[in-house]
UniProtKB/TrEMBL annotation:
<dbReference type="InterPro" id="IPR009057">
    <property type="entry name" value="Homeodomain-like_sf"/>
</dbReference>
<comment type="function">
    <text>Sequence-specific transcription factor which is part of a developmental regulatory system that provides cells with specific positional identities on the anterior-posterior axis.</text>
</comment>
<feature type="region of interest" description="Disordered">
    <location>
        <begin position="141"/>
        <end position="165"/>
    </location>
</feature>
<feature type="compositionally biased region" description="Gly residues">
    <location>
        <begin position="13"/>
        <end position="23"/>
    </location>
</feature>
<dbReference type="InterPro" id="IPR050224">
    <property type="entry name" value="TALE_homeobox"/>
</dbReference>
<dbReference type="InterPro" id="IPR005542">
    <property type="entry name" value="PBX_PBC_dom"/>
</dbReference>
<keyword id="KW-0238">DNA-binding</keyword>
<keyword id="KW-0539">Nucleus</keyword>
<dbReference type="Pfam" id="PF05920">
    <property type="entry name" value="Homeobox_KN"/>
</dbReference>
<keyword id="KW-0805">Transcription regulation</keyword>
<feature type="domain" description="Homeobox">
    <location>
        <begin position="249"/>
        <end position="312"/>
    </location>
</feature>
<dbReference type="Pfam" id="PF03792">
    <property type="entry name" value="PBC"/>
</dbReference>
<feature type="region of interest" description="Disordered">
    <location>
        <begin position="330"/>
        <end position="394"/>
    </location>
</feature>
<comment type="similarity">
    <text>Belongs to the TALE/PBX homeobox family.</text>
</comment>
<dbReference type="InterPro" id="IPR001356">
    <property type="entry name" value="HD"/>
</dbReference>
<feature type="compositionally biased region" description="Low complexity">
    <location>
        <begin position="145"/>
        <end position="158"/>
    </location>
</feature>
<keyword id="KW-0804">Transcription</keyword>
DNA sequence: AACGATGATTCCCT
DNA sequence: AGGGAATCATCGTT
């Protein structure tokens, strides 16, 4: 193949034209061929060397190369015209095949340069995280909801915090929308750029050999470049979600006092079950519903209340009396105003605790003797030992 | 700002 | 797992 091209590139040292090519990086390979053929021409045994025909051919080639080299210095119209002229040049097929030859040689070195690399583990991690946070993946899926529920699972959500909840969700969807807009932009830009480059290569393939593999490789390079940009986008999106999430969790710690009604409801239950202030699961749920708080908040409240009451009964005396009075007032007309819960005469607002104590056993408003209701680890409901049945009010 | 009240968290026990 | 106890962190009042 190369042998066939030898005469075509057989510029003698005297020709002068095309020698300026050696400085051009793109023409380096071509020039080496040119130099190789020079040796042969020095020998003077080439068929075309020294003949009129040979001189003409060399001039032709020199002309072509000169035109190629100066094509970038020309205006667009001029260049287009030149390009067209070159395409129609009678020597073009020969030059083209030389270029093919060179490409074949140089292409070998880059053949295995970049094979499809395994997927970046970092990218996989980012993708997974975005999917888990509900940023990537299907719209309005369980992702965001799951993330929120996971973030709030321990504390539960009060109506107050449900505001923060929706705030979190709206912020997350904001991030989501920005992420998708940017991603779309990048993808569009990538597609546009790829198309542009492919068109360029196709255009160039008229004057130089461009293999499909080369185009493929180029596309791969472009995609990799855009993929790194996408990774950056994913990374910053993840960071934004993390910041949002930490802020949200911090906000969860910001407690707010319960509403007056909620506290009243809880206190009513507490003081009307003072002998055994351990609401059953069912009672807790009812209390939670009634007070607009979560079951875990009810648990916290009772835990705190029991401890604090026990620690300082005197301090709570007044409060206990107050609620005793309230209960008594509501229970007016009833034959046993001091046994509101056990007989189902508990006041309207306070929780009826069907599962709390067996009928007739409960003695409300009673103090725990020596600061203990049942001692540690007593059964919460029903089987209350009732260490003390003394009334704290009358 | 100080202080008490209070909801939440954590650790430990049974 | 549920509760007691200690503690933290914030709220609301003074």
């Amino acid at each position: 193949m190369l042998q066939q091209q030898q005469p075509l590139t057989g510029n003698g040292p005297s020709s002068g034209r095309g020698l300026g090519l050696s400085g051009h990086p793109g023409m380096h390979a071509l020039n080496s061929v040119h130099q190789a053929s020079q040796h042969r021409s020095d020998g003077g045994d080439s068929g075309l060397e020294g003949t009129e025909n040979g001189h003409e051919t060399r001039r032709d080639i020199g002309d072509i190369l000169q035109q190629i080299m100066t094509i970038t210095d020309q205006s667009l119209d001029e260049a287009q015209a030149k390009k067209h002229a070159l395409n129609c040049h009678r020597m073009k097929p020969a030059l083209f095949s030389v270029l093919c030859e060179i490409k074949e040689k140089t292409g070998l070195s880059m053949r295995n340069a970049q094979e499809d690399e395994p997927q970046d583990p970092q990218l996989v991690r980012l993708d997974n995280m975005l999917l888990a946070e509900g940023v990537a993946g299907p719209e309005k899926g369980g992702g965001a909801a799951a993330a929120v529920s996971a973030a709030t699972s321990s504390g539960g959500m009060s109506p107050d915090s449900s505001l923060e909840h929706s705030d979190y969700k709206s912020k997350l969807s904001q991030i989501r929308s920005i992420y998708h807009t940017e991603l779309e932009k990048y993808e569009q830009a990538c597609t546009e750029f790829t198309t542009h480059v492919m068109n360029l290569l196709r255009e160039q393939s008229r004057t130089r050999p461009v293999t499909p593999r080369e185009i493929e490789r180029m596309v791969g390079i472009i995609h990799r470049k855009f993929s790194t940009i996408q990774t950056q986008l994913k990374q910053s999106t993840c960071e934004a979600v993390m910041i949002l999430r930490s802020r949200f969790l911090d906000a969860r710690r910001k407690r707010r006092n319960f509403s007056k009604q909620a506290t009243e409801g809880l206190n009513e239950y507490f003081y009307s079950h003072l002998s055994n202030p351990y609401p059953s699961e069912e009672a807790k749920e009812d209390l939670a519903k009634q007070c607009g708080i979560t079951v875990s908040q009810v648990c916290n409240w009772f835990g705190n209340k029991r401890i604090r009451y026990k620690k300082n009964i005197g301090k709570f005396q007044e409060e206990a009396n107050l609620y005793a009075m309230k209960t008594a007032l509501v229970g007016q007309g009833d034959d046993s105003p001091h046994t509101p819960n056990s007989t189902g005469t508990e006041r309207r607002g306070a929780l009826r605790c069907a599962t709390c104590l067996p009928p007739g056993r409960s003695r409300p408003h009673s103090f725990p003797s020596n600061g203990n209701w049942q001692g540690r680890n007593s059964p919460p409901n029903g089987a209350s030992p009732h260490s003390d049945h003394s009334e704290n009010s009358d």
